[in-house]
Amino acid sequence: MDKFEQERIDKLQKLRESGIEPYGKRYDNTQPIKSVVERFVAERNDIKIKAAGRISTMRPHGKTAFLDIRDWTGKIQVYIKLDKVGPEKFEMFKLLDLGDIVGVEGVLFKTRTGEITIYADDFTILTKSLLTPPEKWHGLKDVELRHRQRYVDLFTNPEVMETFLKRIKIMKHIRQFLDERSFVEVETPMMQSIPGGAVARPFITHHNALDIDLYLRIAPELYLKRLLVGGMERIYEINRNFRNEGISTRHNPEFTMMELYQAYSDYNGMMELTESLITSLVKELYGGYEIPFGEKKIDMTPPWRRATFCELLKEHGGVSFEDEEGLIRKSKELGLETKGVDRDNMANNIFEQVVEQALCNPTFVLDYPTSICPLTKACEHDPRFAQRFELYIASMEVANSYSELNDAIEQDKRLREQLGTEADIAGKLDDDFLTALKYGMPPAGGLGIGIDRLIMILTNNISIREVILFPLLKPK
User: Fold this and answer.
1) CA angle, 284 then 289 then 291, to 5°
2) Using CA atoms, how far apart are residues 382 and 397, in angstroms rounded to an integer?
3) Taking Cα atoms as reference points, which of 264, 280, 306 lies closest to residue 404?
4) Higher pLDDT, 133 or 179
5) Which of 32, 92, 130, 283 has a Cα-to-Cα distance from 249 of 20 to 30 A?
6) pLDDT category of residue 123 using cuts at 50, 70 and 90
7) Longest C-alpha distance within the chain, in Å?
8) Whole-number Å distance between alpha carbons of 283 and 291
9) Phi-psi domain of 451 (left: phi exceeds 0; alpha: psi -120 through 50; beta: other)
């Protein structure tokens, strides 16, 4: 314990000796600080208010004092005067510190400097803080410490609080948007006996009573499709997925995905829905379609560009999908593995290395090689390619969509090809999903949107850790 903490504990003890409970009680009828300020601006007369918040600055001046308090909507100045609150309360003020949480009652006025202020009739200590907040309330600057102590980050850095309140607003908008289009929100298992719906390394856990290993889901896709078979025609799930892979500014092992399915649609319908959803969010948050992202400006004006995988590979990679020798040369030039890599995967590796970084403004990338899309219908014009799109914004994949494969025999064949030999398939093929398909799944469009990445873009944060309240970190 350092001397500053001890000083605060001493003050706490003095409060208790004075008969004051430093950890307060219920404090009713408070008003959000933002609405208090807005009300004063609108009415401009003697408004009696009651507010509560954390002390962010203190400026004592003899028989008067100013302090700022902050709640989750904003900050306001408080004026405390000995003659107004009385000697006993004014002595109590001397036992307050930065970071303490107080309730204040009083009348609003504007100081000579033009600052809206509460002229306190009374104040109440609600929580005594025992640790000193970051110096001078400038907020935590150490990035890792900010993420480890998000609770301090939130109350010292208003822009961080604003990001997470904006995240909540975005989630409400997404649900409202889908509800208005007759989608229903469902829940599917987070623990699965067979991990499916994506290619990723799962986290493994064990169920003691059944004595079986289970996997935290890498995607909800196969369960949501079972619901399509069951007759639920427009469904979505905002879900937590878990992938036992690396951590970066764009990846967290636990992340939020929104996945939806619409019977009798296809990937073209999903493109229209995706563009409408995201542009409506941009319009609500920014009032226009140009938004900042790091040092860039992104033009989100619809309609967004649509280009095929092959067109973009040629445009930005300088190589044709049809030119296998050219793909090999380009792969070697980029330092990519070529031995044992087929053409489709080689082209996809080049795409990820070169093309993705060129896609700043929203771009729908269409028609990927069928061999890397095992759950997707093939294109009628050329079965080598699948009816799939990925949406890129700010050089990040934000959404992925298919015209869903609903041919049970073809799906069985594709999954077996993906998984390899019969020995490899054992325990990995989801036979129940294939059984469901045999009963008949309607043609459908499916869509997955990476919520964390979308929120990064919409809140101008270049690291995924800035939009996840408690990102995974290495142990200290």
Assistant:
1) 95
2) 25
3) 264
4) 179
5) 283
6) very high
7) 88
8) 10
9) alpha
Check if the beta carbon of residue 129 is closer than 8 Å to that of residue 8: yes
pLDDT in tens, 259-313: 999 999 999 999 999 999 999 999 999 999 999 999 999 999 999 999 999 999 9
Looking at residue 417, its pLDDT comes to 84
The proportion of the chain whose per-residue pLDDT surpasses 90, expressed as a percent, equals 88
- 362: CB partners within 8 A, 6+ apart: 275, 278, 298, 300, 304, 305, 391, 392, 393
Measured distance between the N- and C-terminal CA atoms of the chain, rounded to whole angstroms: 19
More confident residue, 141 or 162: 162
DSSP β-bridge partners for residue 108:
118
The predicted-structure confidence for 435-462, as pLDDT tens digits, reads as follows 999 999 999 999 999 999 999 999 999 9
Q: 276: which 2 tokens?
A: 């409408």
Among residues 153, 182, 327, 168, which one has the least CA distance to residue 265? 182
Predicted local distance difference test score (pLDDT) of residue 365: 98
Q: What is the pLDDT of residue 44?
A: 76
CA distance linking residue 135 with residue 157, whole number of Å:
12
**Side chain identity, residue 451:** I
Torsion angle of C-alpha atoms 107, 111, 115, 118, degrees rounded to 10: -20
User: How does DSSP classify residue 355?
Assistant: I
Cα separation, 99 vs 72, whole angstroms: 14
SS3 312: helix
pLDDT for res 423: 46
Tell me the C-alpha distance between 410 and 403, whole Å: 14
| Mean confidence (pLDDT) of the chain | 94
Under DSSP, the state recorded for 170 is H
Query: In this predicted structure, what is the pLDDT of residue 144?
Result: 84
Please give the average per-residue pLDDT across 8-20, as a whole number.
95
H or E stretch covering 135: none
Confidence of residue 137 (pLDDT cuts 50, 70, 90): very low
- Please say whether the beta carbons of 235 and 448 come within 8 A: no
The backbone torsions φ and ψ at residue 442, rounded to the nearest 5 degrees and listed phi first, read -60, 155
Take residue 459 and report the two structure tokens written for it: 């809140």
Instruction: Report the length, in residues, of the chain.
Output: 476
Nearest to 316 by CA among 369, 346, 360, 357: 357
User: Rg (Cα) of the chain, in Å, rounded?
Assistant: 29
For residue 267, give every residue at least 6 positions away whose Cβ sits within 8 Å of its Cβ, in sequence order, or none.
366, 387, 388, 389, 401, 402, 403, 445
Distance CA 320, CA 314 (A): 5
